[in-house]
Amino acid sequence: MKGNYATYALALVLVFVIAITPIEVIGEMNSNNNSEPNSGKVVLVMKMPLHNGSGNSDNASLAPHLVELYSATWCIPCRKVESQIDELNVWWPAVETIALHPSQESPDQLATNISYELYNYYNLSGFPTLIIDGYWIMMGDKQSADLQTLLTNISNDNLPSESNTTLNFNWELSDNNLTINWILSSTINVSIDFIITENDVPIPKTSMYLDNIVKAGLVNQSNSGSNIIDINNSNGNNLSITAIVRVSGTPNLVFGSEIPLDSELSDTWIEPSPTRSISPETIALFTIITLVLAIIPLRHTLPVLFRSNNPQITSIIEEE
């Protein structure tokens, strides 16, 4: 009997091993067949500072990841996400972060055409929104709390993700006009964006300053070319250029956080209802009229306050 039990146990173990082995093989085959990069996914990020003069990509640094923040100066929840980006810059300084303000039909003085183009490219629908490596998306100030967790989880898959993708470019900056020449080669179909950012940008009507604000750029450029970028509304200081190479096509974004959204995000600035103000002259006139109207009833209720009281003067001579 004991021998039969041992045989049955061995048979069960063999059946179990045979059952799970095809599943593992299928998983490996699927991962190999799914090697084609997702459309819109970033494969290479290069950054370098700009100054009056010229330079080239030999002095550019490679970033392990790209974080795009879509924000607006009138967006209150965006302030929290901006603080989280500041924490990220301390926690992992090598990660490239850029702040885009696409809300052009609003009082946002930091809004730019290039930000609006990228906002529409991703087909986004509200602020604040984070895009990581052109693939992961986090919406709202609650999901953004998982940003460092996501970057930790994908830290073994740093950029550049395509070793066969190379980019060489040179530039010349003069009087806020930036001339760029580039050559891009890759074994896959890719496009390139050149983004100009500025640090220490003041938020109007506040004492706050923001870094990595997108000022201008080029989007969806071909593998080689030359162009001139007009950098408007810039003091010419603290400028940088970021080259972003991504897989061509419509992006297919995946949520990078499991935190549910409480409500839809807003991407439209609503003008507050006008408030009526009263001039100081009107206030003074209203005060005088109120006092006059208040005094008249007092003449009847408290007549002693208004009675003429002439004291009697007794002559000293009469007293004597």
Brief digest:
By secondary structure, this protein is α+β, with helices and mostly antiparallel strands.
Q: Which features characterize this protein?
A:
320 residues; alpha+beta; five-stranded antiparallel β-sheet; five-stranded mixed β-sheet; 16 strands
Description:
The protein is of the alpha+beta class. It has 2 domains: 1-35; 42-255, 3-Layer(aba) Sandwich (Glutaredoxin), CATH 3.40.30.10. The chain has helices spanning 2-33, 76-91, 113-121, 140-143, 147-153, 280-301, 316-319; strands spanning 42-49, 53-56, 61-62, 66-70, 96-100, 129-132, 136-139, 166-174, 177-185, 190-198, 201-202, 209-210, 213-221, 224-230, 239-247, 254-255. It has a 5-stranded antiparallel beta sheet. A 5-stranded mixed beta sheet has the order 5-4-6-7-16, sandwiched between helices. Helix 2 links the parallel strand 4 and strand 5. The radius of gyration is 35 Å and the shape is elongated. The N and C termini lie far apart (151 Å).
Which strand order do you get reading across the main beta sheet? 3-1-15-10-13
Q: Per DSSP, what share of the residues sits in E-state strands of 2 or more residues?
A: 25-35%
SS-based class = alpha+beta
Low-confidence runs: 15-34
**Quaternary state, please?**
single chain
CATH topology title of the largest domain: Glutaredoxin
CATH class of the largest domain: Alpha Beta
Question: Please, what is the average pLDDT?
Answer: 83
Distance between the termini: 151 Å
Shape: elongated
- Under CATH, the homologous superfamily of the largest domain reads Glutaredoxin
The total of beta strands comes to 16
Number of helices: 7
* Total separate domains: 2
- How would you spell out the order of helices and strands? HEEEEHEHEEHHEEEEEEEEEHH
Q: Level of helix content?
A: 25-40%
Q: Please tell me how large the radius of gyration is.
A: 35 Å
CATH architecture of the largest domain: 3-Layer(aba) Sandwich
Largest sheet report:
5 strands, antiparallel
